[in-house]
Write a structure and sequence with these properties.
- The protein is α/β, with parallel strands linked by helices and 430 residues long.
- It has 2 domains: 205 residues, UDP-n-acetylglucosamine1-carboxyvinyl-transferase, Chain; 210 residues, Enolpyruvate transferase domain (UDP-n-acetylglucosamine1-carboxyvinyl-transferase, Chain, Alpha-beta prism), CATH 3.65.10.
- The chain has 14 helices and 24 strands.
- The chain has a 4-stranded mixed sheet. A 4-stranded mixed sheet has the order 2-15-17-16, covered by helices on one side. Strands 4-5-3-14 form a 4-stranded mixed sheet.
- Strand 20 and strand 21 form a beta hairpin.
- Helix 6 packs parallel to helix 7.
- 50% of the residues are buried.
- Bound molecules: ligand EPZ.
- Ligand EPZ binds next to helix 1, helix 5, helix 6 and helix 12.
Length: 430
């Protein structure tokens, strides 16, 4: 297995281009199932997660062609013919969002057999709301031996669906099915995450009829067919926020380009309260500046649904607080087990206690390098960020987590002066 080795202490100075959003790209890829015409996605990140989903789409007979064109990295999905509607466990378990092919397969072909994704390190993460929405739209669903077998004998029907709480995945899944259902679907308490907005806008460009964009109530009038489109994936707000925290942690001045500051307002606010200088320029560049001789102040943070502070930035922000002056209380409200980075940060000298869904981080003067293990995708980034300032060498193991969602991380940080390199290990099943 590869690991990332970091020698801490270098300031970060330079510029980092933000990639296309993983969590938008994989939703847009699932939308390609809905049409027999090609979908061309530009600003496509090249990540393990997009590769996993690409492999699954190929199983269905969809042609997936990657290239680097004038518009940068792009992928064309051509689902002229769906040859299989079976999503095997081996492919779905690699990335749980693959489960969301179920709705579009039902919409396009009327049937599908898709593996249940199983649990994951940040929580149980059931898919009951996904199934509830599809059943409300007329799907007949059976669960057997870890698989969902579904069919829509009378086609998908529009329905009024009120989610009991906000789920990004269930909103996305219901939307992907509703665009081709008979009649009108209303999704109440829908997620408003920017990646849902990106998916809805892409679907509209394919001919879908969706109202209420970026609100918590989506009204979808089903159409009988959708056409191909060209779509540019929105910038990755989590990658952008992660590098913003990295720059704030290490000190120096980093310009983030090709991102969208308006998608990370809650993080910007927290970092400013902590004493980080952030300048947003008219051309969209986002500049993070910090004099490393001045200590940051501890601030409290609570994860919330969008536009609140993102759970996917909680681990990185916790790292920033490990060196701040005072105590920061960080509450996790989205996932029940998303503090697994805390014991790893403690190996580097952080002072953290976790109890009852909150972490208390008492700032220390310095961190010291040590071998640590990534436990999930965003946690891996929090450890890399800690390594940037820890004295000596930090080795982050289980880097396959990081490769799921951060494109060319070593290159991007290295270009700003960080001493971060990948050490190749033996390939290993995970
Ligand atoms: C999406 O996950 C993101 N993944 C996550 O990013 C992100 O952390 C999360 O939204 C919250 O913003 C993708 O977009 C691919 P949810 P998702 O459904 O859709 C519970 C990353 O690092 N729930 O909004 O799975 C669930 O267990 C990942 O890129 C049910 O109980 O999140 C959780 O506690 C990690 N039943 C809460 O709802 C359901 O049927 C919110 O989950 C569905 C969800």
């Amino acid at each position: 297995m590869d690991s990332i080795v970091i020698h801490g202490g270098n300031r970060l100075n330079g510029s980092i281009p933000v990639s296309g959003a993983k969590n938008s790209a994989i939703k847009l890829m699932a939308a390609s199932i809905l049409t027999s015409e090609p979908i061309r996605l530009t600003n496509m990140p090249r990540l393990a997660d997009t590769r996993f989903l690409g492999a699954l789409l190929r199983e269905f007979g969809i042609e997936v062609t990657e290239s680097d064109g004038a518009d940068g990295q792009q992928t064309v999905f051509d689902a002229r013919e769906i040859k299989s509607t079976f999503a095997p466990y081996d492919l779905v378990r690699q990335m749980r969002a693959s489960f969301n092919v179920l709705g579009p397969l039902l919409a396009r072909t009327g049937e599908a057999k898709v593996s249940l994704p199983g649990g994951c390190t940040i929580g149980a993460r059931p898919v009951d709301l996904h199934l509830m929405a599809l059943e409300a739209m007329g799907a007949k669903i059976e669960l057997d031996e870890g698989y969902v077998t579904a069919s829509v004998p009378n086609g998908l029907q529009g329905a009024e669906i009120e989610f009991p709480f906000v789920s990004v995945g269930a909103t996305e899944h219901a939307l992907l099915a509703a665009v081709m259902a008979n009649g009108t679907t209303v999704l109440k308490r829908a997620a408003r995450e920017p990646e849902i907005g990106d998916l809805a806008r892409c679907l509209i460009s394919m001919g879908a009829k969706i109202e209420g964009l970026d609100t918590d109530e989506l009204v979808i009038t089903g159409v009988t067919s959708l056409k191909g489109t060209d779509w540019s994936v929105i910038p990755d707000r989590i990658e952008m926020g992660s590098y913003a925290v990295a720059a704030a942690m290490a000190g120096g001045e980093v310009r983030l380009t090709k991102g969208r500051g308006d998608l990370i307002v809650a993080l910007t606010e927290l970092m400013r309260q902590a004493g980080v200088e952030i300048v947003e320029e008219a051309n969209g560049d986002y500049i993070v500046r910090r004099d490393p001789t001045l200590r940051l102040k501890a601030v409290n943070a609570t994860t919330e649904i969008y536009p609140g502070f993102a759970t996917d930035l909680q681990a990185q922000f916790m790292t920033l607080m490990t060196l701040a002056e005072g105590e920061s209380v960080i509450q996790e409200k989205i996932f029940e087990n998303r503090f697994m980075h805390a014991p790893e940060l403690m190996r580097l000298g952080a002072d953290i206690t976790v109890a009852n869904g909150e972490a208390r981080v008492r700032g220390v003067e310095s961190l010291r390098g040590a071998p640590v293990m990534a436990t999930d995708l965003r946690a891996s980034m929090s450890l890399v960020i800690a390594g940037l300032v820890a004295e000596g060498e930090t080795t982050v193991g289980r880097v396959y987590h990081l490769d799921r969602g951060f494109e060319r991380m070593e290159e991007k940080l290295g270009a700003c002066g960080a001493d971060v390199r990948r050490v190749k290990g033996e390939a290993q099943e995970h």
